[in-house]
Amino acid sequence: MISKQKTVTLGVQHVLAMYAGAVVVPLLIGKELGLTPTQMAYLIAADLFTSGIATLMQVVGTRYFGVRLPVVLGCTFTAVGPIIAVASTSNLATAYGAIILSGLFVVLAAPLFGKLLRFFPTVVTGSVVTIIGLSLIPVAMNNAAGGAGSADFGSPRNLLLALGTLVLILLVNRFFIGFTRSISVLIGLVAGTVAAYFMGMVSFQSVAQASWVNIVQPFYFGTPQFNIGAILTMILVNIISMVESTGVYFAVSKIVDKKLEEQDIVKGLRAEGLAITLGGLFNAFPYTAFSQNVGLISLTRVKTRSAITAAGLILVVLGLLPKLAALTTVIPDAVLGGAMIAMFGMVVASGINTLSSVDLRQNENLLIAACSIAVGLGSSAVPQIFDQLPDMLKMLLQNGIVTGSLTAIALNILLLHNRKGDKRLPVQTSLPDV
């Protein structure tokens, strides 16, 4: 049984792993829409608070909501463009009205997505998990170089910080066991940030300027307004998120040795839909299962849901205490990138491990894996190939996880669906107790 202190530490590690991805969405949207510093501060606080509530709903679960897997929910990057577009042509209240109704759509559509479970044999799940990992690698490398668009992108000091963080994580995993090994990423992030401070790369100005307390309130940006075009746009965004989250559920279920049933997928997506609706009510964002934390579970070998429960509670606290939340933003992108290389690489390795149980001498299995991974990676690496398509179709196809997953499912139906040669891995049916 993990002690409370260790559980909190593991929760902090998960928060730090996903924090950059969580705050970049409100930062981008707020900057593009010209929000005031006070409004930006609220947007970030509301995002963290709602992300924590959403994570707790998913992990703890009820009879009808929650997949009860160690997954963290964060705002989906897919929603950035549509929210900016809707808010620019009308206002934020219209965007939030669309988010609220699109969340209800996800709740109602969850049983339909649950029917997809039979189209996810081992060759499909292995391919999808591999695609998730590969699509995240460019994010890690951009951060390792200092962050996309940064003035010192690719500078030697950024690369040195990323390399040092990665090497330290590997050394901790090599020479330590038990709890110390399980917090290797946290150790790497802290040590990397300390090193960056002495290199003059860490500023605490954002911490000094942040307020101590922020109370999240419904309809901060006004009473929701409803527009059919905006609603349909956000529904499409959330359909993409449903596909992504389903892939994450499968990835985590393989790591923690829990066989997913149809009802598990349904309850997970219902919780996600409820989280999206809450995001609209509190003027936050649509939420989805974060791929960033999948690799961390695999790397640390801590599969208990209690660590993610702690992460959810920490996110809620951060949403209420902006000064504490700002403290986590001082970690340089290069340090995060070094840690991400290890974490995201573990997602790829997990997918490859799953595929190793598939008979790839069977040509149909080989084609499913090869084509789905190629399409998924290609869509992520060169999204501009879809620029000439209509906006809604472009939004769907530029997401490598979605295109790769749909390719794997379609090829499985075409080549293998009615054959008996591809079986699921035997897995356990229980999770560790919280």
Strand-residue proportion: under 5%
Strand line-up in the sheet with most strands: 1-2
State the total count of DSSP E strands. Answer: 2
- Helix vs. strand class: mainly alpha
Question: Your description of this structure?
Answer:
The chain is mainly α and 434 residues long. It contains 18 helices and 2 strands. Helix 2 packs antiparallel against helix 13 and helix 5 packs antiparallel against helix 15. The longest helix has 29 residues. The termini are close together. The C terminus is likely disordered.
Structure described in brief:
With 434 residues, the protein is mainly alpha-helical. The protein is built from 18 helices and two strands.
List descriptors.
globular, 2 strands, 18 helices, mainly alpha, disordered C terminus, 434 residues
What layout of secondary structure does this protein have?
Elements: H1 4-32, H2 37-60, E1 73-75, H3 80-89, H4 92-114, H5 122-144, H6 156-175, H7 178-182, H8 184-198, H9 205-209, H10 228-255, H11 262-281, E2 287-289, H12 292-300, H13 305-320, H14 322-327, H15 333-355, H16 363-381, H17 391-397, H18 400-415
Antiparallel strand pairs: 1-2
